[in-house]
Design goal:
- By secondary structure, the protein is an alpha+beta fold.
- It has one domain (2-25, 84-247).
- The chain has helices spanning 2-9, 11-17, 67-110, 115-134, 158-172, 174-187, 192-213, 215-241, and strands spanning 22-27, 30-33, 37-42, 45-51, 55-58, 61-62, 141-144, 147-148, 251-256.
- The chain has a 7-stranded antiparallel beta sheet, covered by helices on one side. It has a two-stranded antiparallel ribbon with strand order 1-9.
- Strand 3 and strand 4 (45-51) form a beta hairpin.
- The protein is elongated, with a radius of gyration of 23 Å.
Amino acid sequence: MKALLITSAILASSSTLAHDNSCNADLNGGVSINSAVVEFSKNNKPLYKIVDDEYLFVDGQSIDLNSSQQTLVSEYSKNIKSLVPEIKNVALEGMDLAVDGVNLAFNELLGEGNDLGRDLTESLNDIRVELNENLSLEKGLYVDEDGFTGEDILGDDFEERIEDVMESAIKDSMGSLLIAVGQEMLFSGGDMDAFEARMETFGQQIEHEMESRGEALERDADKLCESLVVIDQQEEQLRAEIEALADINMLSVKHTRHDEI
């Protein structure tokens, strides 16, 4: 039952991302992004960085650039920085969708204005506020092969924090949930198969509702992937035109749209 409730409540992420389009982005190392510097590293060793969208340093050495190379480096740096607000937008939309999922799930089970839905909404909104305040170029962020790490708001403990919020709220409201389950079973005449069918229908109804609400998030996620494709292409141009970067391939992206299959 707990798994069903959590799945229904955070359907925002699972149903929205499970669409026909796919985005496979492989980062072969780490990248640190802030308003002044974009820096790539491998095994905690700096490889190259771009300072102020203009100056290129490879292995700590300044690289002289001609006009064409300078334009490429500047556009590359600016496009990487532009990913940060795009990531923030997708993250905030995902949190909003998660809040919607929580309310749909628990309002259906416990009725409008129930304490569990209210408490979960408040806790998730607190995390959303933190995302909004900290996910920025000014704060900076670091990403490696495993995703957002370190002190970043989307770091290793992000999913764990959301799980803890869900588990704590459900534990505190177990009595109300058990009553709701008992009522559902009464409606089914004590028939476990009928009860399971009711729960499955309940999940499908929420999934349908969340899919329709998640269309904007899906579009923004695809747009983010398209931005990554552009950056990957620019990296290939840099490798072709700047000898010092020829052997450094940090990003590989494949974006497959359902209408291309």
